[in-house]
Amino acid sequence: MTPSTADHAPQAQMSVEEFEQLARTSPETVTLELINGKLEVKPVPDGDHDEIIMWVAMQCMQQQPELRLYRERGLRIGGYRSGRARPDGTLARAGRFAGDGEWSSPDHILMTVAVTSHDHDTDTRDRTEKRDGYAAASIPVYLLIDRDHDSLVVYSEPEKGRYRHRTTYGYGDTVPLPGPVDITLESEELKNYSG
């Protein structure tokens, strides 16, 4: 079983309402998130980061044309503590977010995707806090593309705020994403964005 920080929630730095007001007025050069009651600042993605997200999007759409990988979609996540996250990618059926405001419920989301950034917070943010927030929101699959380790980590089967399964693959491996995603990623191209 994957360790979780869900049982050790820190004191909230601000209310959800205060966060949403701050996020609305923040400059376009940063992305703000409220994860486990803590204000997080995501750096602006680099070119390799963007190419990796497009690689995932293209493979998903080629295999399941009715699905879309939405970039930076605002989601309400978390267990007993409200949170707000903007995954690098959110996989859902086309039209899922029609009529939603800036922040959507996690209902009917099949997968979230994170591509690690080259900053000091990526370990806590992408590998722990977001993983636990997505599990608490019962998002079926979390795909972490870890550029520090040239790996893809597939988390699945959320239960009681944790993912029950974790499988790690290297760049170049065939990566089967479990249901309800049911897509197989051929990851050879990721070697072009390594290092």
Quick take:
The protein has 195 residues and is an alpha+beta fold. The protein contains three helices and 13 strands; from the N terminus they run αββαββββββαβββββ. The chain has a single domain, classed as tt1808, chain A.
Give the strand tally: 13
Query: β content, as a range?
Result: 25-35%
Shape: globular
The CATH homologous superfamily name equals tt1808, chain A
Main β sheet profile: 6 strands, mixed
Q: Do you know the CATH architecture?
A: Alpha-Beta Complex
- Report the CATH topology name: tt1808, chain A
InterPro entries: Nuclease_put_TT1808, Restrct_endonuc-II-like, Uma2
GO molecular function: endonuclease activity
Keywords: Endonuclease, Hydrolase, Nuclease
Domain Putative restriction endonuclease: 16-178
What does this structure look like?
It is built from 3 helices and 13 strands; from the N terminus they run H-E-E-H-E-E-E-E-E-E-H-E-E-E-E-E. It has 195 residues and is of the alpha+beta class. It has a 6-stranded mixed β-sheet. The protein has a 3-stranded mixed β-sheet with strand order 5-4-7. It has a two-stranded antiparallel ribbon with strand order 1-2. Strand 4 and strand 5 form a beta hairpin. The N terminus is likely disordered.
What are its keywords?
195 residues; tt1808, chain A; 6-stranded mixed β-sheet; 34% strand; disordered N terminus
